[in-house]
Amino acid sequence: MASAGDVTTRALIPGDAVGVAEVLVKEPMVIAGLGVARRVFHTVDGELLFEERAKDGERCDAGRVVGRVRGALRSILTGERTVLNFLQRLSGVATATSEAVRSLEGTGCRVLDTRKTTPGWRALEKEAVRAGGGFNHRYGLYDGVLIKDNHIEAVGSIAEAIRRARAGAHHLIKVEVEVEDLAGVEEALAAGADVLMLDNMDLPTMREAVTRIGGRAITEASGGLTREKLREVALTGVDYLSMGALTHSARSMDISLNVVPA
């Protein structure tokens, strides 16, 4: 008995059968992952020809054909589910991001993702965020200093954490620190933080924090942000909103792959 491969397709489809299948969008969405779909089909069978009929980041209505693949039917059907898994998930991230971006129109505030990504999918999901009009935060722990509550607890104070970060990181790395109240804002500013993450602040406190910061540092709001709350948070004057929900809670979109007459 074979231990790998698509036993159903091998049993039903002759090895020399060729055909065409279309990738169909079944609800309005921002499409993402078409390049990944091409890569998957090519990995299954280097002879498959995949034609993109949309571009990542494009808003598509229900009924839109966004891709067409031609070649061995066995290969097309073997790759079907993996292709759809990528497209549905990444389009969900792009669509959620696009909705967040649209809710902020006119505020000047930008939407950021976080590291709350699916294991193994970070680069793809962050690319999908960009396709939806958002911006990327850190890719990992290596490309930016972000001092959080446990760091502060471990070293004793915000000021000491910033001092150590400055001493240990090279001069091109910005230092961001998470603050939860106005006292933390004042301490972080005095210690020379580049970016202040205003974490789980209520709106009046956040407005006051932005006023006190007065452009001396970049401001980022974070903590439990939902699409319904985004605009009122942005109107406090913060520069960025970071949303883990863009990746950890985006739903998969409804996309199908259908064999059609050649």
Strand order of the largest sheet: 6-11-10-9-8-7
Measured distance between first and last alpha carbons: 33 Å
Strand residue percentage: 15-25%
N-to-C series of helices and strands: HEEHEEEHEHEHHEHEHEHEHE
Main pleated sheet: 6 strands, parallel
Structural class: alpha/beta
The parts where pLDDT drops under 50 for at least 5 residues are: none
Count of individual helical segments: 10
> What's the shape?
elongated
Mean pLDDT: 96
Query: Oligomeric form of this entry?
Result: single chain
Number of strands: 12
* Helicity level: 40-55%
* Cα gyration radius (Å): 23 Å
Task: State the main characteristics.
262 residues, 42% helix, elongated
Helices and strands, with pairings:
Layout lengths: L6 H6 L5 E8 L3 E2 L3 H11 L4 E4 L6 E2 L4 E8 H31 L6 E3 L9 H10 L13 E3 L1 H7 L2 H11 L6 E5 L2 H10 L3 E5 L3 H11 L4 E5 L4 H8 L5 E3 L2 H4 L6 E6 L2
Parallel strand pairs: 6-11, 7-8, 8-9, 9-10, 10-11
Antiparallel strand pairs: 1-5, 1-12, 2-4, 3-5
Helix pairs in contact: 2-3, 3-4, 6-7, 7-8
